[in-house]
Amino acid sequence: MIGRLNHVAIAVPDLAAAAAQYRELLGAKVSEPEDIAEHGVTIVFVELPNTQVELLHPLGENSPIAGFLEKNPNGGMHHICYEVDDILAARDRLKAGGARVLGDDEPRIGAHGKPVLFLHPKDFCGTLVEIEAA
Fold first, then answer.
1. Catalytic, out of 54, 61, 70, 130
2. Predicted TM-score (pTM) of this structure
């Protein structure tokens, strides 16, 4: 069921500074910032040869990332994203196995324009897991 690692997401208190650090210190290709209003974030993607790093910053006061940064003011790893061939079949299999899907169990469109779901961190060794349609 689980496919390739799509990205690791890191919440950051200063998106411009974090993007510059990846671009200038690490020599990475970094995308332009993009607001994803449905998820309450502004993001950039750091392109790597085998995956991506997603840098997340709150978009608005009600952003879930704002709460994360209150608890972790320096930022930190927020979630990990895996691709799945069939997101609805994956959701049903995960739920049948006891995993909790966050939200209303229905996929929403993510930053790549594809359906995504988030899985409760208590069910995955303390890590928030995102699954994305391949």
1. 130
2. 0.94
